[in-house]
Fold Acid phosphatase.
Amino acid sequence: MRRTGDLGQTGWTKTTLQHIAAADYDMLLLPGDLSYADFFQPRWDSYGRLVEPLASARLWMVTQGNHEIEKVPLLEPRAFKAYNARWRMPYDAGASPSGSNLYYSFDVAGGAVHVVMLGSYTDYVAGTAQYEWLQGDLAGIDRRKTAFVVALVHVPWYNSNKAHQGEGDDMRDAMEALLYGARVDAVFAGHVHAYERFTRVYDDREDPCGPVYVTIGDGGNREGLAEKYVDPQPKTSVFREASFGHGRLQVVNATHALWTWHRNDDDEPVIADHLWISSLASNPACNK
Ligand SMILES: [Fe+2]
């Protein structure tokens, strides 16, 4: 599986796509901010043409970012109108239909991997449709069969970049316990135009049974990179760098997956950061 967020349609986007095209993968996962159309609808068309060679050959599974909202007071009251029409995801299929294109889940590799797509810009607190759906979706996973559970969300819940600092805190407060309780293995986010990898975290502290948090918002958008970081680097932040690139999650077997991050500046085989992720389902200490 390949992951890149905040893709846009610049020279950097092209380089990111060339890198992705050069690699072997089953599916591309994109945690929001696709075309940067921002109300100018022809940009959705040019984006479609730009990604078509890849998106027609592999599954592209996306969730939405702020650039997809496109809501105008009085003129266009419906948020996500173009996004929902152009990037319809299988939210009404599978074992737990969500009823909304803005959050959904699906299984990969015969059910060995469960992917949850969350919506940063739709209600998420306890009692809302998204929260209730997530609770049911996670409760329905059989971890004897599902080795890995990963989630994608646009706004990072952990972030030591000065850009968008604290923006994901409310959603984290509302939903983090659900993901932790289900022993979700990793959470991937976009929004911040840089790369950052955290250790396993829960409630802002290192926790061996929490997910690994990764920000991969560096696909190549027209707003440029987010280069300013909070100092000192939090203990939970393991690796952070403002460069364009993409990541790869290779599920090797029922217990191990290899995460690698590839900079655009390097040749595709160069790995700038990597981490072996062992499934929390196979960790007895996390399943008492
Ligand atoms: Fe964003």
